[in-house]
Amino acid sequence: MFKNSPFEDYPIEFKEINSTDFPEFKVDAKKIIKPDEKGFITTELLSSIELDSKNTIVINAAVGQGKTYSIIEIVKQYFKSNEDYLVFIVSPFVSLIEQYHQKLINQDIQEKDIFRYELLGTEKCPNYLEKSIHIVTANCLLGNPGDDALINSKAKREYINTLSSFCQKTNKKVIFIYDEIHDAIHNFKEKYIFNLWKWKNSIHKNYVISATFNEASKIVIEYLAELTDDKIQIIESLRIRNKENQSDLNLHYCNSQFFNNETPELVNLIQDLIKRDKEIDILCFSKTLSLSIIENKTEGAGKLLYQKYDKINNCTSDFIKDSKKGKTSPQNRYNPNLCNVGTNFKSGVSIEKDNHAFVIIFPPNGAKMPFQNFYGIFSNGINSIIQALARQRKKGEIHLLLPLPDKINYISLPFSNDKKKFTFFKNVYENICNQKDTKELIEYNSLAKQRDLLYEFYSNELKGNVINEIQLVQNTNRVNKVRLEFPEFKLFVLEDGEIYLANKFQFFGGDLSAYITYSAITNQFINCTLNTIISKKVLVLDENNMESQLINFYNTYYYEETHQSYFIYLNDPLYFKVLKDTIFKETQIFFKVGDKFKTIKKNGKDKTSKQFEAVLLNLVRKYKRKNYTDINETNQLLSNYLSESISLSLNSDSKEYSQYNKAYIESFKYLNVLRERMIKSINSLQVKGENINYLSQDPSEDFIPLNEEENFKNLINFFSTEENPIMIGMLNLSELFKGKTLTSQKKEIYKLILKLFFETELYRLPTGKRERVKKITKIKELPNPDKVFNWLIKPDYDFPEGFFTTEMIEEGTETIKSILNKN
């Protein structure tokens, strides 16, 4: 947890199940159980259950508290009982059947006593009437055929019909254990519930188990409890953190519109994990992104993974059809012995690898749409986040790649009256969140409020929109007409409630990053605690205070000893270049105009971006050369650049420098030749006792004689192909000369020198044709070369693009010294 965080023991909010949720049922007083010292609930849970009583038991327990182990223990007790029980373990996924099967075998329950749903319709299908324990899927039990059929297979129907009749005839007591019920809710449609009534005369008990109950699951509980004489027992575990088992949670924010195999934040993360020899699994929000990583062996994150692993296991839920049996079986399941990348292990899988890093890639900004979010496996909202994080069962690392969250209404927070918590949260969140304006701030909403929100929408908008028509239909004689009834509130909650909450409310799933960030800061995840936040810093500037704001930002983040020990060894242009690259890499920079925010881009050609880089250059002058002057206009900056470059060139020997610097020196020496020529050609005129010095607005024909044209072309070529970092985007002299004739280029260079090396006024001569000229009020002197920003790049410092990294900054002085010595 973050140092000095006031949320270390802050209560974990979860969806409670209470007796008041079921006013039409017989509900015992809720039993609260506490995990043991290792964080498990099995012992106290089993002591709270009466195996012989007929009812529906709701077990609301946190992730990682041993629910699966408890299920196996419950099955064992029924299996060893003197009573004649038949037990169903009902899973939401086919992929979990093998897991339950293996755990039963490990508990000395023999193969002959277990039936696995996967064997239905195959030649290996045994006589299931002889089996005491059945592992099936919820869709099999309820007869849900899926999206590709109208009715489930004949083999499944015969299995359910034969077995239910057999149990009724032989007076077997049937136990149903619904694990991970949150992932099976879609099977409990009204038309499928009739299949459960096949067991009405033989059902003895339902166990409904989840760590992430929701409003829809309460409707499922009602359907099930009706089969157990309306009796419900609620057992709820305390959410207690076991710090010894908590993984380190690391948040990596990336504001890219889309994520792909080459997203820099993902590549950097995978590179770091491989460098530290971590075992890696990657859960992706989309199949497309998963495959882009799996199938790319030559670039990006995929390339890095294939350098570590011979094989990457594709976990993207393909189905392979057996044409002979007409049966489909899921492939690409999670493999604990491989590096897994995919979408289908968000729930039901336990990752128990040593030295493990679990990477989860959430939907980027581009997946957020006005009416429906394209969030892939996270489309159903916040419960899917809790389930995904819970896959990490042993202490390790969890890394989340996610976009910046939008702004939140701090007053809506449940601890807004607690100054210490409120200030801590706001300080952290404010440095992470997206600074762009949004139509509405994100509002915190408690989980307990969800039913009220759903009912308000249902009654006021959904049903309210057609309430008169509903009454009209009810008052109309429709004998023998097709049924026309508006769906009741509970059916709306069951079928559409979670989707509505996830899409309508930012905090419940519209902005997944906001929920994750809130939960991480306030310590809401039971199996992990916040370790690091890797995010671009946010810098907001305004026109009147840009310079002071940038100075404060620089002093806060970069004028530390570690940065100075790094930058001090760079010559001036590399100092500026590396600092600029570092700031843009680590910072999201906005320019505020009124209530609008404009992004400042690196090397941007717009006025604001150029102005920012000019102010940044002034900082470099201030801290590196100690000759800080207030320059924030492109012309002033260009004038200084050219003056300093001439001064340096006149005092440098091109033989000591690289080929690039030779061109630099010779070009600026020649520029000074033209400057001196213009100074010598200044005309003077006495007007009413005042000495008027002036130059023509256009060059004379012999301004650049024929024998100097090669020198002039070299100068223009240098300006047109300049690669010095200060010239890119911000000044861009090449635009002056591009596509122009030699005569026009001569005029441009003349005007440039006149504008930047002289202070002038427009003046009309009092004689002759009264020619318009430039009155010279001042000739700018060249600066002392020892006191200027040194634009020359010596060979030892001429490193390739991206040579210096943030990692080097952190390693400090000794690393930089050794690099410079080697070069």
Helix content: 25-40%
Main sheet record: 9 strands, parallel
The gyration radius over C-alpha positions equals 36 Å
Tell me the fraction of residues in β-strands, as a range. Answer: 15-25%
Number of strands: 25
Chain-averaged pLDDT: 85
Note the total helix count.
27
Distance between the termini: 42 Å
**Which regions are unreliable across 5 or more consecutive residues at pLDDT < 50?**
319-330, 723-729, 795-823
Structural class: alpha/beta
- Rough shape? elongated
What does this structure look like?
The chain has 823 residues and is of the alpha/beta class. It is elongated. Strands 1, 2, 3, 4, 5, 6, 7, 8 and 9 form a nine-stranded parallel sheet that branches. Strands 12-15-11-16-17-10-18 form a seven-stranded parallel sheet, sandwiched between helices. Strands 22-23-25-24 form a four-stranded antiparallel sheet. The two termini are 42 Å apart. A hairpin with a 4-residue loop joins strand 13 and strand 14 (327-330). Mean pLDDT is 85; it is low at 319-330, 723-729 and 795-823. The protein contains 27 helices and 25 strands. The longest helix is centred in the last third of the chain and has 22 residues, at 659-680.
What are the SSEs and their pairings?
Blueprint: E1 26-27, E2 31-33, H1 42-47, E3 55-60, H2 67-80, E4 85-91, H3 97-106, E5 114-116, E6 133-137, H4 138-142, H5 154-169, E7 173-178, H6 190-193, E8 203-210, H7 215-225, E9 231-237, E10 247-253, H8 264-275, E11 279-284, H9 287-294, H10 300-308, E12 312-315, E13 319-322, E14 327-330, E15 339-342, E16 356-361, H11 382-389, E17 397-402, H12 419-430, H13 450-462, H14 467-474, H15 489-504, H16 512-521, E18 528-534, E19 537-542, H17 546-557, H18 561-567, H19 572-586, E20 587-593, E21 596-599, H20 607-625, H21 634-650, H22 659-680, E22 683-687, E23 690-696, H23 709-720, H24 734-737, H25 742-757, E24 758-764, E25 772-779, H26 806-811, H27 813-822
Parallel strand pairs: 1-9, 2-9, 3-8, 3-9, 4-6, 4-7, 5-6, 7-8, 10-17, 10-18, 11-15, 11-16, 12-15, 16-17, 19-20
Antiparallel strand pairs: 13-14, 20-21, 22-23, 23-25, 24-25
Pfam family, one: ResIII
InterPro entries: Helicase/UvrB_N, P-loop_NTPase
Organism: Moheibacter stercoris
